[in-house]
Structures are given as structure tokens and as C-alpha cells.
């Protein structure tokens, strides 16, 4: 068969998994969704005292109300990163800042 007559169509069963994987990856990297989801990861009690303010290049920046809270959330950093990565694998680190 020459190049001019080769079939170029593909079955939907071959295409759909690739398309869905691409959509999922794009969804998981949307900073607006990561920021909006922060309260579900930190919990109801601490959500009122923290705010995810930005996400870029794998780094989630979170503002906390005071130094006591900063100390507390830093101790939970590893656990929080693990929880976030389950839903958003692109989150590599969390930076907590007073503000």
C-alpha cells in the first residue's frame, strides 16, 4: 500500500482514552480549581484562617492569619501535600506565609 492510499482513520476506542487523559491532566493543573479546593483539604475549622492565594510551577502559596497557625500548618505540610497530590498531582509543594 502506498502512502497516498493508507487509511488514516482511527477507532474511537483508540482515541477516547487519550482524549480523556489529556482532559484530566488539564483539569488537574487548573490553578483556579486547586485554590478553590483548598478548604476541603485544610478542613472547616482552619479554612476560615487560611487562604490559598496562588498556584504556579507546582507551588501552592497559602496565607495564614498568624504565627501560631503558621507553625501548626507547617507541621501538617507533608500530610496536606499528600492529600492534594491525590487529586492534583501537579502540586509539588506548599508555601505558608503570614498575611
Describe the structure.
By secondary structure, the protein is α+β, with helices and mostly antiparallel strands. The chain has one domain (11-98): Alpha-Beta Plaits (2-Layer Sandwich), CATH 3.30.70. The chain is 54% helix and 19% strand. It has five helices and three strands, in the order αααββααβ. The longest helix has 17 residues, at 12-28. The relative contact order is 0.15.
Counting helices, strands and paired strands, the structural category is alpha+beta
Q: What would the average pLDDT be, to the nearest integer?
A: 88
Strand count: 3
Helix/strand order, N-terminal first: HHHEEHHE
Can you tell me the residue ranges where pLDDT is under 50 for at least 5 consecutive residues?
Answer: none
Biggest pleated-sheet summary:
3 strands, mixed
Through-space gap between termini? 67 Å
Helix content percent band: 40-55%
The rounded Rg comes to 20 Å
Shape: rod-shaped
Compute the number of structural domains. Answer: 1
Number of helices: 5
- CATH-derived topology: Alpha-Beta Plaits
- Annotated CATH architecture: 2-Layer Sandwich
Strand content: 15-25%
CATH class: Alpha Beta
- With strands numbered from the N-terminus, the spatial order across the biggest sheet is 1-2-3
How would you describe the oligomerization state of the chains in this entry? single chain
Amino acid at each position: 500500500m502506498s502512502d497516498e492510499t493508507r487509511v488514516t482513520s482511527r477507532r474511537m476506542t483508540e482515541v477516547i482514552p487519550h482524549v480523556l487523559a489529556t482532559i484530566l491532566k488539564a483539569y488537574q493543573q487548573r490553578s483556579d480549581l486547586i485554590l478553590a479546593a483548598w478548604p476541603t483539604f485544610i478542613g472547616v475549622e482552619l479554612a476560615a484562617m487560611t487562604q490559598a492565594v496562588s498556584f504556579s510551577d507546582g507551588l501552592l502559596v497559602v496565607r495564614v492569619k498568624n504565627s501560631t497557625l503558621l507553625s501548626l500548618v507547617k507541621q501538617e505540610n507533608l500530610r496536606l501535600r499528600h492529600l492534594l497530590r491525590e487529586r492534583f498531582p501537579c502540586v509539588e509543594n506548599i508555601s505558608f506565609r503570614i498575611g
